[in-house]
Amino acid sequence: MQEALVLLMLIIFPVKVASSSATPSEPTLSLPGCPDKCGDVTIPYPFGIGDGCAAISFNPSFAVTCNSTFQPPRPMIYAPASADSNTSTPMEVINISLERGEVSIYAPVGYKCFKANTNTLDNYTGEFSLEGTPLILSTTRNRFVVIGCSALGLIGSSNPDFSVAGCFSYCEGLNQTSDGAPCSGKGCCETTISPNFTAFQAVVANVTLLPSFNPCIYAMLVQVGWYSFRRQDLVGHLGFISERATRGVPVLSDWAIRNGSCPKEGAMAPQDYACISTNSYCMNASNGPGYLCSCSKGYKGNPYLREGCQDINECEMRKQDPKYSALYPCKKGVCINTPGGYICRCRIGTRSDGTNSGCQPVLSQSEQVIIVMKLQRRKHRKEKDEYFKQNGGLRLYDEMRSRQVDTILILTETEIQQATENYSDDRVLGCGGHGTVYRGILDDGKEVAIKKSKVIDDGCREEFVNEIIILSQINHRNIVKLLGCCLEVDVPMLVYEFISSGTLFEFLHENDQRLSAPLDLRLKIATQSAEALAYIHSSTSRTILHGDVKSLNILLDNEYNAKVSDFGASALKPMDKNDFIMLIQGTLGYLDPETFVSHHLTDKSDVYSFGVVLLELITRKRAIYIDNHNEKKSLSHTFILMFHQNELRDILDSEIVDNEVMVVLEKLADLIMHCLSPRGDERPTMKEVAEHLQMLRRLQMQLVTKTNPIRAHYSYGGPATTVTSGHGDSQSGVGC
């Protein structure tokens, strides 16, 4: 039993598996098969890591070494060894930009420190060389900065021409400086450098004795905007380097394809031309000789790779981030992507505003509204016609002409809306997971119940009209009659006769003033319901299963005659997992154990559920009820236990317990036990159940006549006390 409950919970509340969604990939930047990153730094071609991955034919320094002794690894560029030295110093790369043609590298800091305890000086000249590489120091993006009090800093280079620049910084105490102050001479100073620097030496000298609070002075070439003065930089032995420049300071260099130039317009490009991607172009380097490549407007990626420049989808970018709406404007139009650009197409009723990036109305606002209304009306009429065809309306008309179906009404959506006062909440009889049932009044004043379902399987629309044809031919006094349908909506609606006195569930369980229900009345309701179910199982042109037998789906008219409703629904479409979950949620306490395992309804599924309804009738307890200990119990499970323990009287409703009819109640209990058999093939058919109930009803009449002739003539065939309850959703099979 516990395992079954666990399985039930898994079916009702299935575990959801998170699915990942892929994001659009960016254009590749490295050669195919080559690493595109070293640590956190992207390495785009012509730079590359490993054999065959860099454009060393243009310059050997395009080869990048990835030093994995660090975590994360650090990319290094080596300048060719100079004539004075057989070794080259590695330069750590911070960033490489294809678009701007820049490489950011760490450069050393020159310094001079006075050690008070030894009266000695500690000197270091910050030397840096890019000679032989495709890199040239940026004149506009770097500044020479000196830090210290009484500090004179110089930066010099002899390549290509000898040049020197410098500045002087002075202060008498820390209080004369302030954090964030510009480097204008107090605590620090800065100056520009000459063009075409490929190597430099940064030195610093003290003009007077260094004050004790400022034992070290510094000189460095650094990227504009990186350094901000702090008084703490003046304090301590090599304090600035240990706190802010352990790996050096960033400098920006411009790179280019130095051994070539852009071909003249109309001339053939040389064989070693670097701009090989389609939709790319060449531009001369802004710093030093050579050229750079760039993707054409409307494209992005790597122009140094074949097909490296890919189209930018401006329309998708507009959707992803509002800032692109200003960059790629398309005001009141429809954005359509094109290779290398986009177009802004104007909708019907608008035209270009003259900017090619926006639209304006052609007609006045009132004229536009009229056109839109006409288009919507035409579209709505077309949708109605399509729905009517999809839902088998033409087939139903053919059947009506051939007189196969002559009792069914085909209503328009407008007629349904009028009948329900446009689906007014005041007209709702019931609602639930499957849909809503409304009380409607047709043009001839007839009251009906209109079932508006939520969904239907597209593969079963033809089957749906077959069911309408079959159900419309059913004419049984104890079955709620199908009167008509509406097919010109997405999900077809069904129209049933209206039963005004509520459901068996309400009669037994929900009345404020509990109405008397003698055994003969209960047997009458049971017998009529069983006859209705037996009829749809065996007396129609094809077997129809109810699939949702419960006291909520048995209506009572004003003479307490039973009317079985909402049958045939299970045959309208096959039962998938979601349908089965909905079935379980709506029929807990009534569900056949075999159906629970197989997910398959049979006529014996209806027999089991009807057995539970019989239990409700003789116990006046709900299928899932609250016992004296405030615990939820299954009525069928409790009954089976008490039956086997010979405690039948204890579970029966006291109103019907009487020695003179105990034989009837015992035989009825025995019938219920057969209906509740775990195996379907051990249960009786509904026809056998109906016959047995008829026999018990006659036996009860005989016993009562024998002992109490007056009581035997008590009739429920005439007007009965009105059941003070709403219609519920008895004609929908769902509960609010």
TrEMBL record:
Keywords in alphabetical order: ATP-binding, Disulfide bond, EGF-like domain, Glycoprotein, Kinase, Nucleotide-binding, Serine/threonine-protein kinase, Signal, Transferase
Signal peptide from the UniProt entry: 1-19
Keyword check for Transferase: yes
Any one GO MF annotation of this record: polysaccharide binding
Membrane topology: Single-pass type I membrane protein
Keyword Kinase among UniProt keywords: yes
Chain positions recorded as ATP binding sites: K452
GO biological process: cell surface receptor signaling pathway
Gene Ontology CC annotation, any one: plasma membrane
InterPro entries: EGF, EGF-like_Ca-bd_dom, EGF_Ca-bd_CS, Growth_fac_rcpt_cys_sf, Kinase-like_dom_sf, Prot_kinase_dom, Protein_kinase_ATP_BS, Ser/Thr_kinase_AS
Protein's UniProt name: Protein kinase domain-containing protein
Organism field: Miscanthus lutarioriparius
Lineage: Eukaryota, Viridiplantae, Streptophyta, Embryophyta, Tracheophyta
